[in-house]
Amino acid sequence: MPLGRAVPALAAATTSPSNPRIVAVVSRRSVADGSYTFATTLTGGTWTYQGTLASSHSVRPLLWRGGATSELLLGSVYPWWSGNLGGSWTAFHPGPTHVDIRGIYTNSTHTRVWAVADGDSYDGQYAIITSSWSAGVAPATATQVSDLGINSLQQFFVAPIKRGTSSPSTRWLLTGGMDNYGGCSANGGSSWSYYNPPGSVADHLAVLQACVPMGTGCNPSTSRAYFFNIGRLWRSTTLWSASSCAGVGWTLANYHPGVAAPWSSHSIALRPGFPGSVYVANSGPNGVVQVSTDGGDTPFTATAPLPDDARPVSLYVTGSGAIIAGSGRAANGQGTQYPPRGIYRLEPGGSWVPWGLNATPPEFVNAITATGTGGTLDTFWAATTSGIWRKAGLGSWTLVLSTTGYGASDVAIDPQNSNRVYVGQGLIDQVQEHRGGVLFTDDGGASWCSLTSGWLPHATPIADVEVDPYDSSRIWVATFGAGVWAYDGAGAPPSCP
């Protein structure tokens, strides 16, 4: 298959019991290139061109009907059926089906098909569809399947908004994920509406609040909020004064579109106490941090590149303005990968210096946070692919939780008790997804317990963990595959037995 850079989908198929075949569907990066189907024998003979699925790319699942048939089901941008081993294809999705089919399944008698997309349903699109299926014909036009309350699947973040109310039933939440509109709830997650800043399409990574305290909430005149997706940044000063989700106004910041930020809520950071100071990791060819001190009113500037060819994938900024960058095995989108190098620190007016885990760096430093405002005597925590590391004051970094085989994707500190720390597992930029769950410690890392054992988030990659700003017994979790969840301790934070 001399197609150059192709992304294959592969499944076994047969035209008769005596003639076993292997079928592969491959696609290039461009939609215009289409997807190509080839077949060969099980012994690896010559691949035979079967046909082209025009204007399609990014093929994913490929399913064979079984028996002495030539029927295939393919998931790409939409679901397709072929009755001749890929010689031609017929779509069977209804109009509002969300793009990018991630999974296809049939029952044992092959009379019904289900397909799931990576999208949401709170904006009127279908995330899960089903069709009846008879031998020799394409599945019937699909219908929507209930999402059982999980109306947005692959989330990157959840942000509980500090609007001055301590009632969980009136808590505002914002969330966003892959290929989705943003979701907004004004009633603690009981119902959701979608929102989208002007010009934003999908892949929403973070909403951060630069809160200037006033009473139990944020000063609506001086506080700012930032909404970040891949390549664009919006800001708002109305998040705390709007009467509804639809009333929040967002304006585009002067941030260069297309900058290569890692796909994580930790690729953007704010400086505590400085509402206009915004920092974005650029893991592209230069390996710099983009900086604005005026909230994006003027174009962002760039720091010097990180040393040692490192690429920043996570950021934390201290109250004094020091930038702390976690590096990772980032890729530039053209096949080049950069080596992991650990953690670096840049003081205002200074140069980047190694600051931890540099001798034997983990593959990714996914999140960095600290008690207080990250002062000299505060405690820092880092979530990495090798586990959870802690640095107390002037001490060195110490591994307090080994997560061998499970990458730690997030770490969050209870603002009411710095010894209580939560860890999410399972989502590492765009290179690793596995079952996750949330662990926690209530003794500063000496012992750890599971918060999610027995619940769906335990089997799902965890993208973001947040402690509620008003009630530290309520923990919000964004999963990459099962929506947004909340742990409600009813006033009592969890404790290890």
How would you characterize this protein structure?
The strands form twelve sheets. The chain has a four-stranded antiparallel sheet, with no helix packed on it. Strands 5-6-7-8 form a four-stranded antiparallel sheet, with no helix packed on it. It is built from no helices and 43 strands. It is 0% helix and 42% strand. A hairpin with a 6-residue loop joins β3 (35-41) and β4. The relative contact order is 0.07. The protein folds into two domains: 7-144, TolB, C-terminal domain (Neuraminidase, 6 Propeller); 155-488, 7 Propeller (Methylamine Dehydrogenase, Chain H), CATH 2.130.10. The protein is globular. Mean pLDDT is 86; it is low at 1-7. With 497 residues, it is mainly beta.
Structure described in brief:
The chain is an all-beta fold.
Secondary-structure blueprint:
Blueprint: E1 7-16, E2 19-27, E3 35-41, E4 48-53, E5 62-64, E6 72-75, E7 79-82, E8 90-91, E9 101-106, E10 112-117, E11 128-132, E12 143-144, E13 155-161, E14 172-177, E15 182-185, E16 193-195, E17 204-210, E18 213-214, E19 217-218, E20 224-229, E21 232-236, E22 251-252, E23 268-270, E24 278-282, E25 288-292, E26 301-302, E27 312-317, E28 323-327, E29 343-346, E30 353-356, E31 365-370, E32 379-384, E33 387-392, E34 398-402, E35 408-414, E36 417-425, E37 427-428, E38 432-433, E39 438-441, E40 449-450, E41 462-467, E42 474-479, E43 484-488
Antiparallel strand pairs: 1-2, 2-3, 3-4, 5-6, 6-7, 7-8, 9-10, 10-11, 11-12, 13-14, 14-15, 15-16, 17-20, 18-19, 20-21, 21-22, 23-24, 24-25, 25-26, 27-28, 28-29, 29-30, 31-32, 32-33, 33-34, 35-36, 36-39, 37-38, 39-40, 41-42, 42-43
